[in-house]
Each structure stands twice: as C-alpha cells, then as structure tokens.
Amino acid sequence: MESFLVAINAVIPFLCYITFGYGAKARGVLEEDFLQKLNKMVFRLLYPFMTFYNIYKADASMLPRPLLLIFAGASILILEVLLVLAVPKIVKENPRRGVIIQAIYRSNFVLFGLPLTISVFDESASSVAAMMVTVVVTIYNTTSVVILEMFNTEGKTDVKTILINVLKNPLLQGACAGLLFFFLQIKVPASLLKPIAAFADMTSPLALFVLGGTLHFNAIQANLKYLVPTLTFKLVILPAVILAIAYALGLRGLELFLLIAIYGTPVAAASYPMAQNMGGDGELAGQFVVISTVVSVATLFLWIFFMKSTGLI
Range of 197's domain? Predict the structure, then answer.
C-alpha cells in the first residue's frame, strides 16, 4: 500500500495540471491558437531556464559510483542507436518515428525519480539521485534534439542542417550554459537565481497545462497501434532488461532502483512541446505523456513491490 501511495502521489500533480488545461479549453476560457502560442513560449523561453537550473544546482561532491554513471549513460546512448535503426523499419511516417523513439528512451526522471527515491530510501539518497538527474537529463536534452531533427516533418537528414538546428535549440543552449557554470563554478547572484528557479519550477506545470488544453481524446483510438506496443515496451519490457543487465554487472540496492526510476517512469513532459515545435507528431507525443503517466501508477507500484519482495532493495 505504501508503494502504491508513492506512485499515486507522484502522478496526481501531473494529472491535475493536464485536467486543468483540458477544463479551461472545454469551458471556452482559452482558444487552441493561444495554447499553441503558449506552447512555443514554454519551449523557447522556459525550458532553457529549467535545463540550466537542473544542472547548475547539482552537488558535485555527491557523485554516484562510476559504474552506475557509465552504465546509465552508455545504456541510454546504446538504446537510442538501436531505436534509430529499428523504428524506421517498423513505422513509415517520419514525424512519428522521432516521437516514438523519444517516448521509449526519455522518461520523466526529474519529477518522478527524486520523489520516488526519497520515499523508498529517505532523504539520504536525494543527493545521489539529483546527480543522476543531471547526467541523465543532459543526455536526454542533447540527443532528443538530434533525433527529432533527424525525423522531422520535412524528412531532412542533411548533417549540416541537423547540426545548425541542434545548436539553435533552446533546451541545449540552456544545458550548455548550465554545464559551463557548473564546471567553472560560476556563482549566480541570489537576486538572479531566485527568478531563474521560479521560471524553472513553472515550466513543467505550464507545459502539462498546455498539453491538457490541446489534447484530443478522439484521436487516441487511431493511435492505439503505436501507443500500446510502445508503452508496453517502455514501462514493462525495457526496465526488466535493464534491471537484469545491471544486476549481472554488480549494481545493487539504490543503484538498481535509480535505473528503474530512469527507465520505468512515464514519458517526459518535455517531449510534447519539443515534438510540437520541431516537426514531430505533437498529438501522438502528448498522448504518450498522458497515458504513460496514468498507467505508471500501476507499473511503478509493481516494480517497487517486486524489488522489495525479492530483496533487490
């Protein structure tokens, strides 16, 4: 029951933001044209603050074991390569290819991983989890830009075009600035850090609010052939494979749980505005976020229950 409540408490805020947006649109308070413009604003202006702040605030003294960092980073990159090779052979529409690839490997580790880890292992594990967030999110933000550019609406795969668009991407620019400040130990004055933190904190709620307002439930049935296999693979099969490999390599306890938090949490909320603004199938991306968030209440509970009952954590 405790594990179930942890999963419920992690999911409910997401569903509240989405429901609020859907209700505002249904009551005619907001028009979809305005929400689309707001979506662009979130992507171009707010997400850079979030990526910068998540990296800037990391504690360099609380690094996880090198084996865990290497495995987490390498497994994400290897998975991405495999997906880039495999998905285009199965999915024919270019805008959906990038969205499906991103949905499989990119999880909401920032907003789910930390509360889940603290709930299961208490506050003593928060610093290690926060450092893992920095590493994982940096990889997510960098590679997702490249992948979505590879499979955009126009189908452009020109290396020069992709590179230019990657360098111009707001999320990557925020991440690069964060890394620069982090490694050079540049201190941001408190008077500036406070509004930066506020902008970072409002990013995900506003993105999910917009997602709720632009969600079309009548389109879900048409996308079931993508939603069911993708989310089954993401939330059940992939975490099981990663858990088995990590255990064989000697990772234990908190380390194993952090990998489940990376691979078994819902599709990242950021994947929706990114797809919407970078030529991907935004509607499908939004459905991945919403449905995976709801389904993860059950799957996360089952993963936590399994790991506790087998003594893995």
Answer: 2-305
What DSSP string describes 22-38?
HHHHHTTSS-HHHHHHH
- For residue 312, being part of any structural domain is answered with no
Nearest Cα to Cα of residue 120 among 262, 4, 273: 4
Structure tokens at 46: 């707010």
| CB of 200 closer than 8 Å to CB of 53 | yes
The answer to whether 92 and 101 are in contact (CB under 8 A) is: no
Sorted by sequence, the CB contacts under 8 Å of residue 27 that are 6+ apart come out as none
185-189 contacts, C-beta under 8 A, 24 or more apart? 188/56
Residue 192 lies in a domain: yes
Return the minimum-mean-pLDDT range out of 93-102, 157-166, 270-279: 157-166
| 85 burial level (CB within 10 Å; 0-12, 13-18, 19+) | exposed
For residue 311, count CB atoms less than 10 angstroms from its CB and return exposed for 0-12, middle for 13-18, buried for 19 or more.
exposed
Q: Tell me, yes or no, whether 81 lies in a domain.
A: yes
Say what the pTM is.
0.77
CATH of the domain at 211: 1.20.1530.20
84 located within any domain: yes
Residue 235 C-alpha from the chain's centroid: 13
The number of distinct structural domains making up the chain is 1
Cα–Cα distance, 125 to 122 (Å, whole number): 6
Q: Is the pLDDT of residue 155 over 60?
A: no
Q: What is the dihedral of CA 78, 80, 81, 84, to 10 degrees?
A: 160
Mean pLDDT lowest among 86-95, 127-136, 227-236:
127-136
In tens, the pLDDT along 58-99 reads 766 666 788 999 999 999 999 999 999 999 999 988 889 999
CA distances from 42 to 45, 205, 271 (A): 6, 10, 12
